[in-house]
Amino acid sequence: MQPDLTRLDPVTIRAMLDWQAELGADEAIGDSPCDRYAEPAEAPFSGAVKRPAPPAAPTPKLAPPSAAPAPAVDAMAEARHLAAAAHDLAALAEAEAGFDHCELKRGARNFVFADGNPAARVMILGEAPGREEDIQGKPFVGRAGQLLDRMFAAIDLARGSPDPAHALYISNIMPWRPPGNRDPDPAEIAMMMPFVERHVALADPDVIVLMGNTPCAALLGKRGILRLRGHWTQALGKPVLPMTHPAYLLRNPAAKREAWADLLSLRSRLREVT
Ligand code: URA
């Protein structure tokens, strides 16, 4: 039996909404309420006499099942092929946007490729777009992104700078928002890695900053950002610095002290690497 939605108390309504949000339905898609529990209305009787159904068409003969099943699409091979064929960032963005094998694409509103100056010495790799990024089609534009901008401005780096020495180039491991902002799973990350690798090769930054666990899992094969942060290492032929994600810093302001130490370490590294 369907619940009578008009009689539910506010606590139950809240619990139902929280449950929807946990499933990933965290946005209203229409302005008028719609009772999806309602039975479809019966078509009113029009008085018309039902015509007899036309004779059934002969059932087409099915081909006998072949011994070998159709080969499954090798999504990673296709990603590798598309990425390798892209000779500049615009071509890579187009190829990645058109890649249809990642389920996250179906739930996302926009494809989020990158923002900032592609000639920047510093490339930041985050995890995946959140709600704001999905709406605007740009990485790190929500609350965490605004903190990221302030953090890097403190060492004189900005995504809007035309000067590569003071600029940032920002992207994510995943170009589509995962439902409910869940972490991308290892298979999703692996599938998109050829695009990430090509993105780094084409942008060719001097250093890469890995924001949070997902890019560390993707590039270093390790998680545990609170242990990894601040320790320079190498990946994809570049010096990389793991840092705590600004979303974590918003929830744990005390961790900003270590993030500041990491920013200073980045600044001195940039002075060394010419
Ligand atoms: N968090 C990320 O890791 N990337 C974004 O683009 C936004 C939030």
Structure explained in plain terms:
The protein is α/β, with parallel strands linked by helices and 274 residues long. It has helices at residues 10-22, 75-85, 89-97, 104-107, 131-136, 143-153, 186-203, 213-220, 225-228, 246-251, 256-272; strands at residues 114-116, 122-126, 168-172, 207-211, 233-235, 238-243. Helix 2 runs antiparallel to helix 3 (89-97) and helix 2 (75-85) packs parallel to helix 7. The longest helix has 18 residues, at 186-203. The model is unreliable at 44-52 and 59-65 (pLDDT under 50). Bound molecules: uracil. The site of uracil (URA) has 13 residues, from helix 6.
Structural class: alpha/beta
Order of neighbouring strands in the sheet with most strands: 1-3-2-4-6-5
What is the chains' assembly state? single chain
Q: Let me know the CATH homologous superfamily.
A: Uracil-DNA glycosylase-like domain
Return the string of H and E elements. Answer: HHHHEEHHEHEHHEEHH
Approximate shape: globular
Integer average pLDDT: 87
Work out the helix count.
Answer: 11
CATH fold label? Uracil-DNA Glycosylase, subunit E
Overall number of structural domains: 1
| CA radius of gyration | 25 Å
Q: Total strand count, please?
A: 6
- Report the top-level CATH class: Alpha Beta
Q: In percent terms, what proportion of residues is strand?
A: 5-15%
The largest sheet is:
6 strands, mixed
Q: What is the name of the CATH architecture?
A: 3-Layer(aba) Sandwich
Our measurement of the CA-to-CA distance between the termini, rounded to an integer number of angstroms, reads 70 Å
Ligand catalogue: uracil
